[in-house]
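Second opinion, please. Pick holes in both lines of this record:
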Amino acid sequence: MTALPRVGIVHAVAALLALLAWTRVVAAGAELDTRTIIEALRLPAAGAEAPRTRNLAVVARGPADLLPSAAAAPALAEATQEAERPAVPPPSLSLALTFASNSAELRPENGRVLGQLVAAMLSPELRGQRFLIEGHSDARGVAVANQRLSLERAEEVRQYLVALGVPAGRLRAAGRGAQMPANPADPAAAENRRVRVVALP
């Protein structure tokens, strides 16, 4: 009998559960379904106008800068428009996945959500996109250990998605530790322990 690959028996069972969940459409009102994931991770259309900030600081270096010539006005207007465009964060989705305590081992109950994530990533709308899988921890414990565990969990999710059919070249994993809490007011809060999927341009 041949040994199972790295995903292991627990992951194989979870993968089977995910594939079964894949064939079902989640009822309206459910907290997360494939369509919701697609909408959350879809990149904006090319040429879409970015939202503009209302706060613009203009710094004058000298008297000549205060009143630009008519010839310079179009270039100044274009530069001002560029300065008004804030950096738009990429589409992302946070998932409250469950792992074995102090471990990167995914629990089987994650199968449904991860199956829906795979279905979304393989959908026509997201098929050409790449994604960063980020692991996040709370601030309890040692920072170095949290950083390592968050990376291991992100990598475990990446491997799980690859095992279910998402091409490996479309996925990267990164560990963020406790650096980017979802709830900065409570660094030990459960919602800080999450896996975030970020759409890459």
Summary: The CA atoms of residues 77 and 83 lie 10 Å apart. Helices lie at 8-22, 34-41, 63-66, 73-84, 111-121, 143-163. The first helix runs from residue 8 to 22. The radius of gyration is 22 Å.
